[in-house]
Design brief:
This protein is 31% helix and 10% strand. A two-stranded antiparallel ribbon has the order 1-2. The longest helix is centred in the first third of the chain and has 12 residues, at 3-14. It is globular and about 35 Å long. The protein contains four helices and two strands, in the order αααββα. By secondary structure, the protein is α+β, with helices and mostly antiparallel strands.
């Protein structure tokens, strides 16, 4: 769907209230620049990460520094994540 359709779907079905990114590629030759930065050590300065499935999570601090990556099996409310939030 379009960006608008996706936004409406997420709000209606999942109660999403946060800002969504535009529709784009997560992997491959058309990878969105944000995901390129998040997944490449040469750009993010932390590590290389491979997005394997939906709901992978990246945690950034208030200055935009990458401080954590969590696979789709890690709950957003997991102690692994919440312990890093100040």
């Amino acid at each position: 769907g379009t960006n608008q359709q996706i936004s409406e779907f997420c709000k209606k079905n999942y109660g999403v209230t946060f800002t969504l990114l535009e529709k784009g590629y997560v992997k491959g030759s058309n990878q969105h620049p944000l995901y390129s930065w998040l997944t490449k050590k040469e750009k993010n300065g932390v590590d290389d990460y491979k997005i394997t499935w939906n709901f992978n999570k990246f945690l950034l601090d208030e200055d935009g520094k990458l401080i954590g990556y969590f696979g789709s099996g890690v709950s957003p409310t997991s102690e692994k994540i919440t312990s890093l939030i100040k």
